[in-house]
């Protein structure tokens, strides 16, 4: 088992140190990171915690998944690798110009 965990449904007020403190009850936390919007600096509502061992990670999942933090029920599970995105810029829409359709 991987020792990197996905933590979802975070309150927007939760920061890295809050995550670290919450997970420290289950073992040694190697890293804790709340993902933030690049432009606004606001939390995206999820983050990642890396525990020192797979056993500690499983204990954190068992102990925290579904529990309340900041008034919200946490989702805690093993982090999966990020899947590659397709299309690049523009959301994959084809066609030229603004508004689409024909001119005449």
Structure notes:
The protein has helices spanning 16-24, 54-64; strands spanning 4-8, 29-36, 43-51, 68-69, 72-73, 75-78. The protein is α+β, with helices and mostly antiparallel strands and 104 residues long. It has a 4-stranded antiparallel β-sheet with strand order 2-3-1-6. Strands 4-5 form a two-stranded antiparallel sheet. Strand 4 and strand 5 form a beta hairpin. It is globular and about 40 Å long. It starts with a strand and ends in a 26-residue tail after the last strand. The mean pLDDT is 88.
User: What gap, in angstroms, lies between the N and C termini?
Assistant: 60 Å
Low-confidence stretches: none
Largest sheet: 4 strands, antiparallel
The tally of helices reads 2
Please compute the radius of gyration using only Cα atoms. 19 Å
Instruction: Give the tally of β-strands.
Output: 6
Biggest sheet: strand arrangement: 2-3-1-6
Helical content (DSSP H or I, runs of 4+): 10-25%
Task: Give the integer mean of the pLDDT values.
Answer: 88
Broad structural category: alpha+beta
* Apparent shape: globular
Note the run of SSEs as H and E.
EHEEHEEE
How much of the sequence is in beta strands?
25-35%
């Amino acid at each position: 088992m991987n020792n990197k965990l996905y933590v979802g449904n975070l309150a927007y007020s939760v920061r890295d140190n809050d995550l670290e403190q919450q997970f420290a009850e289950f073992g040694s936390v190697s890293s804790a990171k709340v993902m933030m919007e690049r432009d606004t600096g606001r939390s995206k509502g999820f983050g990642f915690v890396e525990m020192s061992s797979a056993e500690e990670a499983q204990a954190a999942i068992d102990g925290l998944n579904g529990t309340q933090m900041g008034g919200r029920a946490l989702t805690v599970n093993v982090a999966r690798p990020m899947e590659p995105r397709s299309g690049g810029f523009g959301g994959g829409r084809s066609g030229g110009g603004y508004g689409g359709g024909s001119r005449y």
